[in-house]
Structures
1.
Amino acid sequence: MDKPLLAINDLRIRFAQGEGQVEAVKGVSFTVNAGETVGLVGESGSGKSITALSILQLLPGNARFSGTIEFNGEALLAFSQAQMRQIRGHKISMIFQEPMTALNPLHTVEKQIGEVLAIHLGLERSAATAKTLELLELVGIHDAHNRLKAYPHELSGGQRQRVMIAMALACEPTLLIADEPTTALDVTVQRQILNLLTQLQDTLGMAILFISHDLNLIRHITDRICVMKDGEVVEHGPTGEVFKAPQHPYTIDLLNAEPTGQPKSLTDNPPVLMNAERIKVWFPVKKGFFRRTVGHVKAVTDLSLAICQGETLGIVGESGSGKTTLGMALLKLQNSEGEIHFLNQRIDTLNQKQFRPLRREMQIVFQDPFGSLSPRMTIADIVGEGLDIHKLAGSGSREQQIISALSDVGLDPQCRHRYPHEFSGGQRQRIAIARALVLRPRLIVLDEPTSALDRTVQSQIIDLLRSLQQKYNLSYIFISHDLAVVKAMSHRIIVMQGGQIVEQGATRNVFTEPRQAYTRELINAAFEAGHSG
Amino acid sequence: MTRFTLNPLNQRRWQNFKRNRRGYVSLWIFTILFVITLLAEVVANDKPLLLWYDGAPYFPTLVTYPETTFGGEFELEMDYRQDYARELIEPEGWMLWPPIRYSYDTINYARMAPAIPSLDNWLGTDDQGRDVLARVIYGFRISVLFGLALTLFSTVIGVIVGAVQGFYGGKIDLFGQRFIEIWSGMPNLYLLIILSSFVEPGFWWLLGIMLLFQWMTLVDVVRAEFLRGRNLEYVRAAKALGMGNVRLMFHHILPNAMIATVTFMPFILTGAITTLTSLDFLGFGLPAGSPSLGELIAQGKNNLQAPWLGITAFLVMSVMLTLLVFIGEACRDALDPRKYYFN
């Protein structure tokens, strides 16, 4: 075989942190041949993104390297910034995870792609426009001509990712680095983007370094796989072999990390805890000098649901289907119309002050375990705050209640004097659950509680939630786009699209015999890309 | 309730602050200067700190004694700097003098004003025969105290207004912003000049008038932080816990806004000091006779034959402002989350 296109040899990356240093990548070596797709898999914190960013020297200034990165036989780490600019976007391109933030919101599609062409190929404006059009058609954007003048916010998530790919391909790079290009997208769109990438590779013959946390996701599109853990490559080899006979226990863990099981079945006829009728959340769209309301964004329209004690109601839908808005409206964190009854009391007519005492009965756990804990408070303060607000604790019992809530969620109570940043994502999510749990609520709204977590951690959190439900007879409203997780958690499921219920029923029925085409499409996309299909 | 240990975040900030050697050294120099000038009455005074007369102690800086106490003729306050006083007191006891035997308003009749620096008046005297060093010490103190007071009050008002606007948004925010736009359009220097013709502006008057316009500096910054902060997940989580608005604002969102605020504060301080100095220079500032750096600059301008006036004022101002700017830069570094130092 010829010399590989990209050869990384014993790469080590250290970061300065306070007084000390953290070694994020510890001696990683792998190669990518021309025209080949290599998957770099690992959970968050495994150093996979840092490795990829270091190829383009895009790391912050407090990083220090050793080892070699050779691209086409040239040592990239020795390149100056000026030399690197010739490589970036030209020979090696990159696609990022979040297309909304990776595109400049103030520039049109034409300008963003044209910029790359002007810098690297020195194209004139008209030539650049023609080439841009060609690229947009290549990545499958319909009506590309009219889309040239569109701004990123006018495009959907999938379209934005396509524009990102078009930008990356503008100069026909020999290596494309795709850093979790589908993670932020809905399942149905994920499939399309993956297909697009494989198809483009066939036509353009470039090499792809595909970074993902999800081993199953990249099964079909990679030739070889490197599994990373804690800054080291623990296993690598041809994709088929890795899947057939994984050697390292960590790889086996990753492969088996799909959430499984189902919730414990309910006792007969549990009492209804919450009952919502004809919930409607419309955001007015205002225009003109007098701000007249010219239309509405219909987030949730005439939606009714009921939830029993001890039951989990799963709400699934793609982004923009209104599922989070619905959750917020049920907790009165979002103004809505319609009747909500909770514990046989009508709550939609109460004002915030009257409602406040009831808040302890219904709690919420958010998606982002990094954003939902105040970085300036200790764990004890975060968990104890609800107790203070509702004056539930005498002086002695406050500490006791905090300790028992922390042990309920499987954390060592000794850690309660530390701050959130000292914990991992999964531990932080446990803290957020403890904060909700300490008030002994009857209902917890779980808004994508596992989506920001690694698969192996997800399963642990799901087990935890299920056992807590049994212990305290909790009701959950479980909002997620991830069907595998919802399946493992819920007794009943509501499928939402465009603010309305498309289908609802017992979990088993919905999954085995979906009645609506949309539900079928969702299930197919999720379980073909996700599972070994 | 509050344990006085810095949380890890603040510890890192303090480390970052110390890493900026220039700012750290500046902080020390400034603190020493400020403490010295806070004790101005002990450092530069025309009365002895302690006086021993006829077997008993006297404290002339604290108590006013008439001449008759020491065997003089009149019921007037003793002028301890005169030879007459020394003749009365020294046979019966002794006097402990501060290092500089002039207060800011003591006139040295012995020499032609303005007198050049000498062993007696280390920085010379101004055109009214007052000791420049004593005036600089008192002037430094009043400038810094004025700056600190103005910074403190304008921060408190600005943060509260910004917090309310940002947190509630909507109409409150809209009208608040329009009011600030109009209010900041007022020519505040002219207003000060007009007002100072109605009242004799003392320290507090000046502070109040300047506060009318200074409080707006921070509103925009704090407002923006609150607009962002009210949608943070941990703020919404706290709301879901049933937390009231006031506690939400000051317990959860304010700490975010404080980064921007604290970064701004040293620069508000230097701005306030410069403004006070320029008002004094123009003659619309503190009442005549008070020790102020601006007045010293004006004297330097009027007495070009006495360069020690202008040079002293220039040096004191530039050292003070330079120190404060360095400290401000170190504060900014300390609060910058992206600032790392590599060993």
2.
Amino acid sequence: MMGSVVYAKTKALTDVEFHYCPGCTHGVIHKILGEVLVELDILGNAIGVIPVGCSALAYKYLNCDIHQAAHGRAPAVATGVKRVRPDNVVFTYQGDGDLASIGTAEIIHAAHRGEKITTIFVNNAIYGMTGGQMAPTTLVGQKSTTSPEGRNESVCGKPLKVSEMIATIDGARFVERVSVHSPAEIRKAKRAITKAFQYQLEGKGFSIVEILSTCPTNWGMKPVDALNWVKESLIPYFPLGNFRDDINGGVRK
Amino acid sequence: MKGNEAICEAAIRAGCRFFFGYPITPQNEIPEYMSKELPKVGGVFLQAESEVAAINMVYGASGAGGRVMTSSSSPGMSLKQEGISYIAGAELPCVIVNMMRGGPGLGSIQPSQADYFQATRGGGNGDYRHIVYAPASIQEMVDLTVEAFDKADIYRIPVLILGDGMLGQMMEAVTFKEIKKQDLPAKDWITDGTKEKREPNIINSLYLEPELLYAHNLKLEKKYNAIVDKEVRFEAVDLEEADVVCVAYGTTSRIVKNAIETLKKENIKVGLIRPITLWPFPEKAFDQINTNVKGILTVEMSMGQMIDDVKIASNGRWKTSFYGKSGGLVPTPAGVIDSIKKILGEEI
């Protein structure tokens, strides 16, 4: 009896093996991003800009033209690309250290200009690549190699809520925070990424999807525990949902 | 035409269609001119949120195949160094203008040549070089700007036009010559979408494996050596007859020429080496100097930076000395003359 294919790896991913740690959800995010590029039939037209951080090597995994950017500068690089190639689909893929710390000026002003690009913002509340230092999104009390006693609010402030902040900027037309800690959430995340790219395809301005992601290695957790920690600790501080969807009813939160 | 405006007109005529910049004195006429004129030719002017963003927009625009330029002045150039290192590492063409002002720090807004180290040594990290043109007149600035875009494309390298506040702000007559179309290498490496018909093009300076980065550095070195062989430019005046040879570039070379004319009347023979490329530095010009020269005088609008390259090029063959002013003060012909006479007096 002949079998039928019910699932195949998306052609948006190359055959290079990921370097990501076991239980890290970057791989899932790469996969759904790739699937969206294929489903919207924009893979051949896509130009990605990737960051410094764990996903600095994503140019080996994503099967489209890529710029590897300096730390935090991906939105500026993407601006240059989009201004030269307005008919291409341009996206950035950035972590929390990259986007929410060293690159705050670049992301805010790309949104502010209404730059017709899409940002995939992977927030795992820690610096992964450099070995688990405190990020701007690290929770109060969360231990890291540079907050060994836990993040102290009186010294470091509270974690930065990027989606809420960007949703106040008029050039940002679609802002949503999603998670990938369960199959149901992964499906929602994929829907948000699809919408974000549709905004760009319709020339509607800046769109961003913040994705809560895991870092079992630097959180010091088993992969399953890390997924639970997203649900039980990250989401209460970083609530999921849409913060801006101008076509479908404007600012909701 | 004002220097800052002439450089823009030259760039647009040379096919520059993308400009990203941030305001800073004394080069504001550049973004202002570009904002007015680029849209008329279907180009894009964008005022970035910072010099850091501007140079990274250049990185993106160049990688996507645009003929692109940015400009700034000294403190702003410091901010661009990160991006320049990445652009050099990823081998992207672009033209960068620095209308130098006094430093360090916020310094002043007056003309200066105190960014020589930054321009020629690479203010960014890593083993990289880029071409540095040092025009001495607005006409030369126009001509070099046109050429800079082609050299950038030929070598896939950033080209820096190093002017100063004086060159940017002053007015001179200028002719825009007809631009000869160069046979430039095809840009088959740019990001414009694979159309799923070719392998992805990657704009990148990351090589985690040591052997690969070393191979990349060797490739860059080969390119830099070719530039040293082919692209050195300088003006040499009376090196065979001179008792003293001055070395000066840009605005300062004009002051030195003035002093040389005055000394001619006193039968004092002074030669001049005027580097037009600061990198590659015209070391071979020094081989034309006669052996009886009493000394080499480096004149700069700084506390003495190019003199390091003059010493390397002299290689102990002559005594070297320095005259310069900084902080927005300009070296005077009288000061040059005094320094030259001091060299001759010491020897007599």
